[in-house]
User: Fold these one by one.
Assistant:
Number 1:
Amino acid sequence: MIKYYSSSVVFQEVPDEITLALEITSCPHRCPECHSPWLREDIGVELTAEECLRLIGENPGVSCICFMGGDANHEGIASLAREIKERSGLKVAMYSGDEKMDPILASALDYYKIGPYIKERGPLDSPSTNQVFYKMEGGKAIDITHRFFKKKIGDIR
Amino acid sequence: MVPEGRNLYNSYFYIVEDPSIDPVKKFYYQGFGFASECDGGVALHNNLDEHLSKQQYRMLMDVAVKAGCNYFTYNIPNTVCRECGHISKHRLDHCEACGSENVTYATRIIGYLKLIDHFSEPRQIEAARRAYGRLDGNDD
C-alpha cells in the first residue's frame, strides 16, 4: 500500500510545470542528514488513483503530479502513474533516491529524478550534485538537471 | 476597517501572512466569485520568492482566466546592496556583485518599486509579515 503524508503546489521541483507534490512515506533510504526523516515511517493516508484525482480536483490549474519518494513500491508507483495520466491527462514525475533508473518507472513517468542525498555533493540545485533530473521523451531520458542551477547564477558563495 | 491582529488595511482577499495559501489558490480567492461583487481594488498581488519560467507564467494565465481573476501582478523582491548599489532581480541574503550582507529589498507598492525600508513605519511592519509563496512548498 502506498501512503502519502502531505500535498502541496510547488513550482521548483519540476521545470516548466505547476506541480502537485505528494510526500510518499515508508522511504527505504537512510540518507544521512535527510531533511524529512519522518517519511521513513509507515504513516499517512492511502494513495489510490481516486485519491490522486480528488487532490487534482481540489487544485485546479496543476499540470503535473510529483511523487516525492516511493522507492519501497516501484510497481505500485508505476501503475498509479499510468492510471493518473490516462484519467487526468496530467504529467507524472517522481523523486527517487535510487542510484539508477528502474525501467518499470522509466516507461511510466514524464519526469524522473534519481540519486540519494549526499551532503558533500549538495541538493539538486547545486552544480556539484550527484542527483540527476530526467525528462522522459519518446522513450529517451533527457538530462535537464542544469535547469535547477539557473536560479543560483550570480551566487558567489 | 482594519481587522484584529492586523496593523494596516490592505486589499488582499486572503490572509497575506498565511504561508499555506499557494500562488494558484490566490487566483481563486481573488477571482470572479468575490471580485465580481467589488467596484475596485481587486488586483491580486501574487507575492513569490523567486521568478517562474515563461511556461509556468503562461499556465498561470490560464488559471487566472479559469478563476475569473482579471487583474493581477507578481511581486518578487529585488535585492539592493547598500555597499555597492547593485540591484539583483532575485531575493538574496547577500549582494551577488560584491558579497556584502548589508542588503535591503525593494518591492512594488502602488505600481512602483520602492525600498521596503523607505515604507512608512506601519507599512514596514505589515511588509515583514507578508508570506511570499515559497515555490518549493516549504512553509519554514
Number 2:
Amino acid sequence: MSTREQDVLRRVGEASVLVLISLAGGPKHGYALIQDIRQFAGVELGPGTLYGALDRLERLGLIEPLPADERRHPYRITAPGAAALRVHLDSLERVSAAGRLRLQPGGT
Amino acid sequence: MMSAREAPDGRLVDAALRCYPARWRRRHGAEAAELAALLIADGTPAASIAWSYLAGAAREWLAPRSGRPLTALAAALLAATCLLGLSAALIAESAPARAAGTAQSPSGRVPPKAEPTSPGAASSSPHQLTPCRPVPHARSC
C-alpha cells in the first residue's frame, strides 16, 4: 500500500485534521477545541463545522468521546487516530519540502 | 451558565439547531446550545454561529450513513418529484378540458392528445374528445 493510500486523513477535510491536531495535545471539549485551533492555526472554526468534524472522526475511530462533564462531551485521540495524523503530517511535510525546493531559484 | 436559548441572540441559534435531525439533537443539542452561548459571549456574531449550524444541519441530512443510505434518500426525493409531476400533469390535463367545457371556443379546437385511438371513433362533438368521462349536459369535468 502506498503512503498516499495509507493517509486516511487526506479526504476528511482541513477541519478534521485541525481537530485531530488539537486533540493530539490532550482531551478537549468543543469550546476548548475552537479556542485552541484559533490559537495554533489562526482558523476560526464554526461550531457546525466542528461537530461535523467530530462526528466524522469518531465514525472513523480516530477519536473517542470521554464521559460527559455536565453538558460538555470531551473527546480524545485514539491510537489509530494518532497513527493516521502522523502519516498525514509526514505526507504534508514531503509535499511542503517539494514545494519549497521548487520555489528556490533554479529549483525543478 | 446562560444557554443560547436565554441569550438575546439565542433564538436564531436555537432555530438553526432545530434544523438538525432528532438523533443529532439528542446527542449534541444541549452542548451545542451552550457552546453557542459561550461563543456569543466571546463576541462571535450570533448570525455567524446560526449560519454555521444551519450548514452543518444541511450536511447532516445529506450525508449518507448506515441504515439510511444515500440511495434511500435519492429514492425518497425521486418519489416526491414523481408525485409533484403527477399532480402537475393532472392539473394541466384538467385545465384545457375545463376551458373547453366552459368557454365553448368558436373554432372548436381540441387538444391533440385527446384524439380518439381509432379513426372510426371520431365524433363531431368536442366534449367527447376530452379525456374526461362524458356526462350528459355537463359543462365541466
Number 3:
Amino acid sequence: MDVIKPNHVDELVQNNVILSTVETAFNWCRSRSLWPLTFGLACCAIEMMAAGDARFDIARFGSEVFKPSPRQCDLMIVAGTITKKMQPLVARLYEQMAEPKYVLAMGSCAISGGPFTDSYNVVLGADTFLPVDVYVPGCPPRPEALIYGFIQLRQKIVYPKKVAALKKHG
Amino acid sequence: MLKTQELTLNLGPQHPSTHGVFRCVLNLDGEYITKAVNHTGYLHRGLEKLAESRTYTQFIPYNGRLDYVSGMMNEMVYVQTVEKLMGITEEIPERAEYLRVIMAELQRLASHAIYVGCYALDMAGFTAWMYAFRDRDDILDFLEAASGQRLMPNYMRIGGVANDVDEDWLKRLDVLMDKMPAAIDEYDGLITGNEILMARSIGIGPVSAEMAIDYGFTGPNLRASGVDTDLRRDEPYGIYDRFKFDVPVLPEGDSYARYRIRILEMRESVKIVKQALKDIPEGPIMAKVPKVIKPPVGEAYHRIENSKGHLGFHIVSDGSTKPYRTRINSPCFVNLGIFPEMAKGMHLMDAVVALASIDIVLGEVDR
Amino acid sequence: MDKIIDREALVGELNQKFGNCVEIFEDNTNQSIKVKPDKIVEVMKELRDNPKYDFKVLMNLNSVDYPENFTVVYHLNSLTYLHKVTVKVELDKADPQVPSITSVWNAANVQEREAYDLMGIVFTGHPNLKRILLVDDFVGHPLRKDFKLQA
C-alpha cells in the first residue's frame, strides 16, 4: 500500500506538489480574489473608484469585480462618513453578506468620524457597530493606500493565527 | 381580465447607479413609474452648523467635502464670498487670480470627466469609464503637485492661494492641454455617436426652458434646455472677463443634450486654461490680509459657475472670528427636486439614465 | 459688483399695489427690502411677472436665527436685466410661520423643506412639509442657536 512517508515529502515538494490543509488552500484563494461591495458613501468612494481604473489597477490583485449585491461579495469597504440615518442600513448590508466576510474601514470618517466628530448626525466610526478588519487612514487615502490595505487584509486572511498573536502582544 | 397591482420599489441608498447614497421610492405599474419620492439626507453631516464653530480659515478644507469631485471650485466661491464681505476683492494679486482660474478650469475638466465616465457606466459602458478616469488622473497629477492632495486640495486662501507653482509645472500643463482635445475626441468618438447610448438618451427626461428656470436649474443643465446664460460671461467674477470662450447652448433639453453640452464645455475649459497659461504674470500670491480674519458686521451672497451649476454661499457675519450663519446653496440639491416630476410615466431603465444626466453628487445634496 | 435696482421706486410701486407692506431694509448690501409675511406670495408673483423687473430666478432661500427674530431671506435674480434684489421677511421667535412660495417657484419646494427641517420655520401651504435631511423622528432643529453641538 502506498503511504507517504515523511522522508518522501521533500522529494514530492521538489516535484511541485504542495501538501496542506483544505482550510489553508481556501484561505489562500480567498485572499487573492476578494470581491468588494460597491458601497461608496462619500468622498472616499471616488478614490475607491480610482483604485479600480487603469493607472492604479486593483484588478491585478483580483478585486476588480465590485458587485452591487451583498449576497455575492465578501468584502465591505466602508468608504465615507456614516451618518445616523445611514447606520441601520450599513448594519443590514453587513448582515446580508455571507460568511466569511471582512470589513475595511477606509478614510478617517469611517475610522473615527473624521473632521465631523462634533456633528449632530455623524457616527463616530464604523467600529462602533461593525467588526472592522483593516483600517486605511487618510482623507481621502490615496488609491495606493487602499491597495496596501488590501494586501494587509490578505495577510490577515492567510495567516489568521499570526495576526491574532500580533494583536495580543500589541 | 387580469388585474395588476402597483409595485413599490426602493431604488435604495446602496445602488451602483445612484451616484452615492440617494434613495428614491418608486411606485411602478409594470415597469413604468407612476410616482417617485426622493429621500435624501443619508450623507447629511451638518456642515452649516459646523461652520458656526470654526473660524473662517478653518472652514476652507470643509468645502472640498461638499461636492467632492470639484474641490477647487467650492473653495474658490467660499473665499471669494469672505473677500466680498471684507471688501478686499480688488486687492487679490494678479498671479493669484490667474492661478485660481487655472485651478478652477482644471477642476471643471476633472469633474466633467467623471460625469462622462459615470454616464456611460450607468448604461454598462465600462470602457468609456476607463478612458475618462485616465484623463482625470492626468489632471489630478497637476492638482496634487500644486496643492499636495488629489481630491480635497485646501488650496485657496482668503486673499490669494496657498502655494505657488514653478515654470516646470506651467510648461508640463501646457503640454497636457495640447493633448486634451485629442483625448476628448477619443471618448467623443467612442460614446457620443454610439447607437446604444443615443437610443437610450435621446428624448429621455425632456426639460423645457420655462420648467428649468422654474425648478431652479442652473449650470450646464440649464444651458442644455436652451437658456443662454453663463456667470463667467454675464457677471464675471475674479478675472474671467479677460478670457475669450464660447458658451455652448443646446435647445433639446433631454439627457443626450445634457451629456453633449458637458463635452462641449470641456473643450472651452481647455481654451481658457491655455489663455491663462500664456498671460500669467509673476508676482505675489497672497494679498495683505490680517492674521485673524474678522469681517465687519453684515452679509454677502456670492455664487460662481461650478461644474454642476451655481454654487452660492450666503455668509452672515457678526463681527467675530466665526461666521454667524453660513448657507451653502448647492446646485445639486435644487436640481434633484425635478426628478420626481421628470420620472412620472418613465420606464424604469430610462429613469436611471435621466438621474445620471442631471449630475448629482451626494456630498453637495446633503451637505 | 452686483447690479441693483432702484429700491425707492420698487417699494413705492409694490406698496401702491398691495397696501403698505414693503419697506427698504438697511444693511451693508444696499439691495434688501423687507416684506410683511402675509403678503409675501403676492409680492413674489409681482416681482416675477412684472416685465419691468422680470425676477424670473429664485437664486437662494435662506433662514437666519437672529437674537430678536427669525429672518427668511430670498435672493432673486433677473436673467434679462441681470439686476438683483434681496427680500427679507422677519418672523416671530416663538412661532415662525410664513406662507410658502412653492406656487411661484417650484425651486422653493426643497429649500423650504430644508429650512423647516433645520431651522423649524413652518411654511404654510407647502404641499409636502416634512423633514428632508434628518430622520423623521429627530427631536429639535439643529441650526437654531439653542441647539448646542457636543464638542
